[in-house]
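User: C-alpha cells for this one?
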Amino acid sequence: MNNQTLSYDTIIIGGGQAGLATGYYLKRQQRDFVVLDANQRTGDSWRNRWDSLRLFTPARYNGLPGMPFPAPAHSLPSKDEVADYLEVYAARFVLPVRTGITINRLSKQGGRFVVEAGNLRFEADSVVVATGAYHIPRIPAFASELDPAIVQMHSSEYRRPSQLREGGVLVVGAANSGAEIALEVSRTHQTWLSGRHPGSEPTRPGSAADRLITPLIWFVFSHVLTVNTPIGRKAATQLRSHGLPLAQVRPDDLLAAGVERIHTRTVRVRDRLPVLDDGRILDVANVIWCTGFSPGFEWIDLPIFGHDGEPIHERGVVASHSGLYFVGLFFQSAAISSLVGGVGRDAEYIVQNIARKTSDVAMRQAV
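Assistant:
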C-alpha cells in the first residue's frame, strides 16, 4: 500500500549534474521542487565508475551554474573529484535532494504527473527527467554462451585490474572506455582490444597544444555543432552511430603497451570461447564488454518514444505531454549537452519553459 502522496510543483528525477543544474535554476526562482536520486549519496554515479577514470575536459569547463570547478583550470579532474564537487554543489545551494529513491514508474493521471517509487508516491505539474542519456548496460546475447569460468563484466562493473583472474583479457568495444580499460589491464594481463577505431581527437587532453585549441573546440561544440545547424545535425548523427573520438588514449599507446588491436568485431561463441568476425577464436580468461548502454527509460509509462527508444523532444521539451522535460540527453541542444560543463545551458532553458508554462496556467485560471 502506498503512503500519502507528496505533491510538488516540479519533480526532478536524477541527482547528477543535469538534475542539480536544473535544481539550481528552480531554486533561484523560489519554486517548489524536489530532486529524486537512486544513489545513496550525491555524486555516486561518478564514484561508482572505474578507479582511474578522469575527465578529458579541463576543470575550467566542468563547472555547474553558480560554482566553478575547484581545481586548476587546465587540470583533468578524477571521477572522485567530480563526485565530491556535485555533493558540495548540492549542499552549497541547499538543493532538496532525496537519495535512495529508485523510480518504478512515471505516468500521468488526472492532468498531473505521478511518480511511483516503491511505497512512495509523488505528484507534480512538471517533471524533469535528468537521469542522463543511457543506463542499461548493453551486452550481446551470445555472452551467456561463454565458458562459465571466463570472468565477464560490463564496463559499468569494472573498477580495477584486480577484479580479473589470471590469463588473457578481451576488451570488446574500442571507444574511449574500451581503450582506457584495455591500456590499464595490459599492465598485468595479455590484452586484446576488439572493435572499430572511432578516430582520435587532434590533441591530447592536458597538453600544451590542447590548452590552445580547447577554447575553440568548446566554442564550436557549444555554438556551431547544435541541433539548429545543418553541420550540427550531421555531427549528431555521426556521433550517435560511431561514438566519440579517442581522447586520453591513442593507437600508439596501445601498441606500445602490447595490446593486440583487432579491428573486427566479436560476433559469436564457439567451443565456449569468443569468436571474431574473421573467424578467429580467442582463448581468454576474461571479457570486458565496453559495448555501451541502452536508453533505459522503460519506467516512463507515457507514449513519448520513437522507434529507437529515444524520447521525442525539442531541446528537451516534450510537446506531446505538456510539463514533461529532459535534461542531460546526448546532443539535446548541442554537442556539449551531456557534458558536466554543458548541462547548465539546457537546464536554464528548461526552467524558463517551466516558468512560462506556470505563468500561462495562472493567467488562464485568472480569466
